[in-house]
Prior knowledge:
Elements: E1 2-8, E2 11-18, E3 21-27, E4 33-34, E5 38-44, E6 50-53, E7 56-59, E8 65-71, E9 75-84, E10 90-99
Parallel strand pairs: 4-10
Antiparallel strand pairs: 1-2, 2-3, 3-5, 5-8, 6-7, 6-9, 9-10
Amino acid sequence: MLVATGMGASGTYTQYTQGSLWVQVYSPQDEQIFNQPSIAVAGKAPAGTVLSMDKAIFVVPESGDFSFPLTLDEGPNEIELVASDALGNELDIILTVTYQT
């Protein structure tokens, strides 16, 4: 898996790439600290990419944008986002964020 950072219309993102599959995560960034318990895991991926997080499954629409609501527990939280495409490429993205009151 290749990991790179960049800037887009929605701000800074981290891009994860495996084969022809790529996912840009705008929020959250790894090791980010939040002072509210509700956040969104948001980014861009090719249309038709299947994303799963916790028990939710989402197919990326034509716009390429995705957003999952997430409630954080106090302290460190591990977020696992799995992306797959029709060609059999798969990305397992793990981010750690912290919720501090």
